[in-house]
Design goal:
The chain is of the alpha/beta class. The chain has 13 helices and 15 strands. It folds into two domains: 160 residues, NAD(P)-binding Rossmann-like Domain (Rossmann fold), CATH 3.40.50; 280 residues, 2-Layer Sandwich (Dihydrodipicolinate Reductase, domain 2), CATH 3.30.360.
């Protein structure tokens, strides 16, 4: 096992080069790195498709063109010049012998496993046996297991051949500019800290909504569900970003240490804190079991057992076939301790809203006086920032960080374990699945879940009010 690798990686090897993830994310990210950051190192694709190098280059061209890139520019031509291809079965040692030769005199390779987790073990073992893992970094894609135990088993496999400091676990949400904006806004402004606690915060709501169904991913989704797909990872990362204590020091681990500490303080969910739903029509999607009980929607109530957040309920909901495609978090403040102007101030008047997608918005909800003689008010929002955003795509940012050995935006073994600990007891069919109509905000049972801590804040896109 190699100690922490220092310096920039000098060769990139990505397994699953002919797959869907490579087409949707990796090739566009590599193109962006060549164009924007001058990436100039061998890029070796590995797959079992009996392709030629020219076929891989055609696939790269289709990928970049499909995702809005210019395949006639010098940067794309440079990307093609950097591409190599190794074909074969991951169980075949000869494939890795050939890979070692293709790597030439690489001293700090980066291996990216864009393949199903079931192949991680054999691939990592072959990398080690062939010498390809020497002084190497490893990037792995979620899902990091299907439960706490399977995640632990997966980590144990990877730890045989790579040190934790050289393993980069991608959760692409951490590479999103709006998510980093939450961290920056919280800790770059001193005025947040005095009221960012149980004394002033009434509740927190985090919503990730999609107005489409599972489409052509029926088989995958029916083995996963909303809790495993987005709540256990993306949404818990947002929860941690909103509620963690300020990081101390300049080390990359400082931020991850704070997230780990926060997530370890979140109580494990029980069946009374979760509502699962399934949209009407899901059972007819190709690849879906006709009797499936997999959730396409989930809402949950979380509690944090620490001094800052004790007693503050945090609600997360995520689902498909909802009214809009949007993701945002609302931090709702407590009402004033008395009604100074003899009017009832709504519970939701004071809040901070962080829009994650489709735009980057930070807004402050406040109550202001209506014009006239009477001391009565209206609820308004002060938009602090609203950017359509020409952001660096998450995969481009994360892949660039992995090449440079910067781990801050990647999740860590203890963080993954803490996330699975939180949801482990409510996975699969512990709770009933309630049917909901498309274009609604999920099952009506979610109103019972939020109860007096509500109402739910249903996000609205500009122009759709």
């Amino acid at each position: 096992m190699t100690a922490k690798v220092d310096g920039k990686s000098d060769t990139l090897v990505f397994f699953g080069a002919t797959g869907d993830l490579a087409h949707k994310q990796i090739f566009p990210a590599l193109f962006g790195l060549v164009r924007d950051e001058g990436l100039n190192m061998p890029i070796i694709g590995v797959a079992k498709q009996s392709w030629s190098l020219d076929q891989l280059k055609d696939r790269a061209a289709d990928s970049v063109k499909t995702h809005g890139g210019d395949i006639d520019c010098d940067a794309f031509k440079q990307l093609l010049n950097l591409l190599h291809y190794v074909n074969g079965d991951y169980n075949d040692p000869d494939v890795f012998t050939e890979l070692r030769k293709e790597m030439g005199d690489a001293k700090r390779p980066l291996h990216y496993l864009a393949i199903p987790p079931v192949l991680f073990s054999v691939t990592a073992a072959q990398l080690a046996a062939s010498g390809c893992a020497d002084n190497a970094r490893l990037v792995v894609e979620k899902p990091f297991g299907r439960s706490r135990q399977s995640a632990d088993d997966l980590s144990a496999i990877l730890d045989k051949y790579f040190s934790e400091s050289n393993i980069f676990r991608i959760d692409h949400y951490l590479g999103k500019e709006p998510v980093q904006n939450i961290t920056y806004t919280r800790f770059a402004n001193s005025f947040f800290e005095p009221f960012w606690n149980r004394n002033y915060v009434r509740s927190i709501q985090i919503t990730m909504a999609e107005n489409f169904g599972v489409e052509d991913r029926g088989k995958f989704y029916d083995e996963t569900g909303a809790i495993r797909d987005v709540i256990q990872n993306h949404m818990l990362q947002i929860l941690a970003t909103l509620t963690m204590d300020p990081p101390t020091g300049q080390e990359h681990e400082a931020l991850r240490d704070r997230k780990a500490s926060l997530l370890k303080a979140v109580r494990p969910l029980n069946a009374h804190q979760v509502v699962r739903g399934q949209y009407e029509g899901y059972l007819t999607v190709p690849g879906v079991c006709p009797y499936s009980k997999v959730e396409t929607f989930a809402a949950a109530k979380f509690e944090i057992d620490n001094w800052r957040w004790a007693g503050v309920p945090i609600f997360i909901r995520a689902g498909k076939m909802l009214p809009v495609t949007i993701a945002e978090a609302i931090v709702e403040f407590r009402r004033p301790p008395r009604e100074t102007f003899q009017e009832t101030v709504p519970e939701s008047s004071g809040h901070m809203r962080f829009r994650i997608s489709p735009d980057v918005t930070i807004a402050l909800g406040a109550r202001v006086k209506k014009p006239g003689d009477r001391m009565i008010g209206d609820d308004i929002e002060l938009i602090l920032t609203r950017q359509p955003g020409q952001d660096v795509p998450p995969y481009q940012r994360l892949l660039g960080d992995a090449i440079n050995g910067v781990s801050e935006l990647f999740t860590r073994e203890d963080i993954v374990d803490a996330e699975w600990r939180i949801v482990n007891d409510i996975l699969d069919n512990v709770t009933p699945v309630h049917t909901y109509a498309p274009n609604t905000w999920g099952p009506t049972e979610t109103e019972e879940l939020i109860g007096s801590d509500g109402p739910w804040h249903n996000p609205v896109l500009a122009g759709n009010k």
